[in-house]
């Protein structure tokens, strides 16, 4: 019996929540204490500073902090005029929150198929347009922006608005332009495990339209204007000032965070390129039209369930998005069940490998060699 490193079990959790705090610990603590000493909790300077920071980061006119991404979608749809009886086209490969937001403005989600990069299929959108359609909701999924040129052409042809669910897409670009700047409005989630995460729930809505911005500001704060007078029905959905102060610290480091995620994606590619049983996400340098930020690293794999069990035995935790069920698979009332062949195949094969900035290069290499061993490749 020797006590070599062989006896030390490698453990790679899917996400290290405590890393969020430990990463920029001193800076974050100082910012939090400052807010608490000032007693600045609701709609104070830190929230405004965060909103201005997002506006600069995205080159967009308006950013409005809200309580979470789902509220952001509901408010954006409502401000965009989507209403009772409307149909909104959305891919089925998304979080139920996208479809739920459509439901909660009284409209019907019409679920469509995806492409090999797992994002919305513009041809499927075109085919799904009906006389009731008023809006397209693309999902900027896994940190990649959909083909917004194709979607905008369809929207223009049928006089539809686009509301982007960019919950997973902060910092990603299509043809040099940021996710969250294409639609009439967009929403980002600031949930801890998102690319820019806070220490709880948070979200932000973006728009270049002054009227939309005004509506959104009213809707997030009880319909009250700057004088506190109620001018419309509204919600209580404000981004907490304490969360905003934490986000201001994280936003300063966000470019490095994105670069690190792209590096990790390169390492996965290096380690897994020759494994033809796997379909990997597009590489960071594959397509000049796309700048991806790798919110998630979603692969498709032959013998997926066996592979995941093998990784688990090697201490590597993986997950399948949405508990393995696309939105049209939940049997929710009002959702038309259609066969979406690409999505169906995807959900027999897809899962997420760990992807976050707490990961060391060696941890990615360890995951890759475990996968290579599973498929009988040399280490
Ligand atoms: C996270 C997420 C949301 C919802 O954001 P919350 O902040 O959790 O409400 C919506 N859509 C997608 C695609 C998401 O990943």
For the structure shown, list the relevant keywords.
379 residues, binds pyridoxal-5'-phosphate, seven-stranded mixed beta sheet, alpha/beta, single chain, three-stranded antiparallel beta sheet, 13 helices
Description:
The protein is built from 13 helices and 13 strands. With 379 residues, it is α/β, with parallel strands linked by helices. α3 runs parallel beside α9 and α10 runs parallel beside α13. 39% of the residues lie in helices and 13% in strands. The mean pLDDT is 96. A 7-stranded mixed β-sheet has the order 1-9-8-5-4-2-3, with helices on both faces. The protein is globular. The structure holds pyridoxal-5'-phosphate. The site of pyridoxal-5'-phosphate has 15 residues, from α4 and α5. Pyridoxal-5'-phosphate (PLP) binds next to α4 and α5.
Number of E-type strands: 13
Number of helices: 13
What small molecules does the structure contain? Answer: pyridoxal-5'-phosphate
Overall helicity: 25-40%
Fraction of residues in β-strands: 5-15%
Tell the overall outline. globular
Radius of gyration (CA) equals 21 Å
Measured distance between first and last alpha carbons: 25 Å
Report the biggest beta sheet as strand number plus sense, adding barrel if it closes. Answer: 7 strands, mixed
Q: What is the residue-mean pLDDT, rounded to a whole number?
A: 96
What is the helix/strand order?
HHHEHEHEHEHEEEEEHHHEEEHHEH
The largest sheet has its strands arranged as 1-9-8-5-4-2-3
Which class do the helix and strand fractions yield?
Answer: alpha/beta
Q: Poorly predicted ranges (pLDDT <50, ≥5 residues)?
A: none
């Amino acid at each position: 019996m020797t006590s070599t490193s062989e006896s030390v079990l490698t453990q790679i959790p899917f996400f290290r929540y405590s890393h969020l705090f430990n990463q920029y610990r001193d800076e974050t603590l100082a910012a939090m204490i400052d807010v608490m000493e000032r007693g600045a909790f609701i709609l104070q300077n830190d929230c405004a500073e965060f909103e201005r920071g997002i506006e600069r980061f995205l080159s967009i006119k308006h950013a409005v902090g809200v309580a979470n991404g789902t509220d952001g979608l509901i408010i954006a749809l409502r401000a965009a005029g989507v209403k009772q009886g409307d149909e909104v086209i959305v891919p089925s490969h998304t979080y139920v929150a996208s479809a739920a937001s459509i439901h909660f403005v009284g409209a019907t989600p019409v679920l469509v198929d995806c492409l090999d990069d797992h994002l919305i299929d513009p041809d499927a959108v075109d085919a799904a347009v009906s006389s009731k359609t008023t809006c397209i909701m693309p999902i900027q999924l896994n940190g990649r922006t959909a083909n917004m040129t194709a979607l905008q052409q369809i929207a223009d042809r049928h006089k539809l608005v686009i509301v982007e669910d960019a919950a997973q897409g902060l910092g990603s670009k299509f043809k040099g332009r940021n996710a969250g700047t294409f639609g009439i409005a967009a929403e980002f989630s600031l949930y801890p495990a998102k690319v820019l995460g806070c220490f709880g729930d948070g979200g932000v809505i973006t728009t270049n339209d002054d009227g939309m911005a005004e509506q959104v500001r009213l809707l997030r704060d009880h319909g009250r204007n700057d004088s506190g007078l109620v001018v419309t029905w509204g919600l209580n959905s404000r981004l907490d000032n304490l969360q905003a102060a934490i986000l201001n610290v994280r936003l300063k480091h966000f470019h490095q965070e994105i670069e690190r995620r792209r590096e990790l994606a390169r390492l996965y590619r290096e380690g897994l390129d020759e494994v033809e049983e796997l379909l990997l996400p597009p590489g960071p340098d594959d397509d000049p039209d796309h700048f991806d930020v790798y919110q998630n690293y979603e692969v498709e794999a032959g013998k997926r369930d066996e592979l995941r069990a093998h990784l688990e035995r090697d201490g590597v935790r993986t997950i399948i998005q949405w508990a393995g069920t696309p939105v049209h698979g939940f049997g929710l009332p009002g959702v038309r069940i259609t066969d979406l062949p690409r999505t169906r195949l995807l959900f027999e094969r897809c899962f997420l490998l760990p992807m976050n900035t707490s990961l060391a290069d060696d941890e990615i290499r360890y995951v890759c060699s475990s996968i290579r061993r599973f498929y009988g490749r040399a280490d």
